Amino acid sequence: MGCNDDIKRLIEAEDLTLPPPEREPQRQYYFIKKCREIVKKKSEELGHPLYACSVCMGCQMNARDSEKLVGILELAGFVLSEEEDADFVIYNTCTVRDNANQRVYGRLGFLNSMKKKNPHMKIALCGCMMQEASVIEKIKKSYRFVDLIFGTHNIFKFPELLCTMFESGRMVIDIWKDTEQIVEDLPAERKYPFKSGINIMFGCNNFCSYCIVPYVRGRERSRSPKDIIREIERLVKDGVVEIMLLGQNVNSYGKNLEEPVSFAGLLREAEKIEGLERIRFMTSHPKDLSDELIEVMKESKKICRHLHLPLQSGSTRILKAMNRRYTKEQYIDLALKIRREIPDIAITTDIIVGFPGETAEDVDETIDVIRQVKYENAFTFIYSKRTGTPAAAMENQVAEKTVKEGFDRVLKAVQDTAKERVALLQGKVLPVLAEERNEHDSSLITGRLSNNTLVHFPGDTSLIGKIVEVRLEECHGFYYLGRNIKDDV
Ligand code: 5AD
Ligand code: SF4
Q1: What is the dihedral of CA 264, 265, 268, 273, to 10 degrees?
Q2: Distance CA 41, CA 478 (A)
Q3: Atom of ligand 1 at shortest range from CA of 379
Q4: Which one, of 312, 307, 287, lies nearest residue 370 by Cα?
Q5: Is residue 434 scored above 50 in pLDDT?
Q6: 3-state SS assignment for residue 425
Q7: Which backbone phi and psi does 417 adopt, to 5 degrees?
Q8: pLDDT category of residue 4 using cuts at 50, 70 and 90
Q9: Residues 250-272, mean pLDDT to the nearest whole number
Q10: Residue 264 contacts by C-beta under 8 Å, 6 or more apart in sequence?
Q11: Under DSSP, is residue 284 helix (H, G, I), strand (E, B) or coil?
Q12: So what's the pLDDT on residue 179?
C-alpha cells in the first residue's frame, strides 16, 4: 500500500555489505532487506514461494500489531496465505482471559502435526501471552518445535528476529520486561483499505485488580501528537476515511509527554485533517473521562456517536475491590450526562461476572446500571483468574454455578435493553460506511452507522469504503436490515 512506498525506498538503500545500523527503524530496514535474500534463497531451494500465515487472536491493539507483522512479512518477500500449512506461521496471542491461552496450546498441537509434514516450516509466537514467564517455561518444555518467540515491547524488532531465526536454526526467544521506546515508521499492511487503527498510547497504569494487561503491556507511554497526526495524514492520502485511535485508556493520553496534551486536544487536531470522515477511539476509562472530551465530541462533525465505557461491575463494593476508582453512582451520573449532552450517542460496555466475592445482590446492582444506562451493546465476560494479579490471590472465588446464573441474568438484561435502544432508529435514513460483503448472504453489504451499530443492506462490492445513505428498515436486536436510498424507485 502507498504508505509503504517511502519505506520500500529506504529498505532498498540499505547496504548489506556494511554492519547493521544501530539506529531504529533503519536497523530493521536493513534486516528486512537481509531477510528478503534469505527468503529468496529458500524459495529457490524449495521451488515455490515461501508462504506466511499470520493469525491474530486479540483486541484491536493486537490487530494493529498484526498489520505491522504482515507489512514486514510482505516486504521480506513472503507470500501471504490464509492457510496454516504455510512455511511460516505466526500467532499474535492474547492473555486477557485464560481461554485465549488454552486456544493457543490447542492450535500449537495442530501446527506440530503440520510441521511433521513440512520440516521447513517455521512457527513464531508473539503478543501478550508471551510476556508471562510461566508461558515461556511451558513452551520451552513441551512445545520444542516453536522457532521464534517475542513479546509486546520488541515487536519492532521482528525483521531482525526473523533473520536470527533463519540463521541460528534454534529456538529464538527475545522477551523484554518493559520499554520506554516507541519505534515509528514501521511498514504495515492494512486489512481494510478504507479504515485503520492507530496506536496513540501503549501500556496501562491502572492496575484493575483482575487485569493482566499492565503486567504484559507495561507502563503507559503516549506517542507524540505530531507523529500521530502525521500517520493519520498519510493514511488519509492513501484512501483511509475512518480511523480508530487505540489505547488501553485513551482518556489519560498525553499525560506523560514532555509537553502534555489532552486526549480532547488530540481529537481537535485530528478533526482538522481534510478527507478524514470518521474518528473513533477505544477504550475510555470512566474515571478519566473529562467534560472537555464530551464538549469536543458534541461539537465534532467527525467523531463517531459511540462511546465504549467499560462498567465491569455495578456494585460499588466490587468496583472498589476491582480498583476501578469510581462508584456505581458516579458511573451512572457520567453515562446519563453523556446521553443528555449527546442524545444520538451509543454507549457500549464491558462487564465481568464472577469477580471474587460477588454475590447475587452485586449482580442485581450491575443489572440496575444496565437498565438505567440502556447500553446499545455490551460484552459480558466470566471472570478469569490471571496468575500474578491481586484478584487471583483473593480467597472468595465464586462457584461456577453461581457465576453461570449471574452471567445469564446479565446477558438477558443487556439483550432486552439493547433491543429497546437500537430500535429507536427504526425508519431513519442514516449514513453507513460500507465495510464488506455480508458473510452469510453475498447479495448484502455490511456496514456501520456512526454509532457503531451494524447495518446490512442490498448492494455490491463497488460500495465498499464509501459512505452510503441507508434507510433502517428492520431492527434485529443489535443490528439492522436496511436499504440504500439510491435504490428507491
Ligand atoms: N477476566 C474476565 N474479563 C476480563 N477482562 C479483563 N481482565 C479480565 C479477567 N481477568 C475484560 C474487561 C476488559 C475487557 C477487555 O476484558 O471487561 O474491559
Ligand atoms: Fe486492564 Fe483496567 Fe488497564 Fe483496562 S484499565 S487494561 S481493565 S488494568
Answers
A1: -120
A2: 51
A3: 17
A4: 312
A5: yes
A6: helix
A7: -75, -35
A8: confident
A9: 95
A10: 290, 292, 293, 295, 296
A11: coil
A12: 86
C-alpha cell at 271: 478533526
The 3-state DSSP class for residue 262 equals coil
User: What is the best residue among 352, 375, 389, 410 to mutate for testing ligand 1's pocket, by most ligand atoms within 8 Å of CB?
Assistant: 352
> Is 208 a pocket residue for ligand 2 (Cβ < 6 Å)?
yes
* Ligand 1 atom 18: residue of nearest CA: 350
Cell of 209: 485488580
Q: Residue 142 C-alpha to ligand 2 middle, in angstroms?
A: 31
Has this prediction a pTM greater than 0.85? yes
Q: Name the DSSP class of 227.
A: H
Confirm or reject: Cβ of 383 under 6 Å from ligand 1: yes
Rounded CA-CA distance 219/62 in Å is 17
* Cell numbers standing for residue 246: 487505540
Single out the residue of 272, 273, 253 nearest to residue 263, CA to CA. Answer: 253
128 neighbors 213 (Cβ within 8 angstroms)? yes
Considering only CA atoms, which residue is closest to atom 4 of ligand 2? 248
Residue of 321, 296, 324 lying closest to 393 (CA atoms):
321
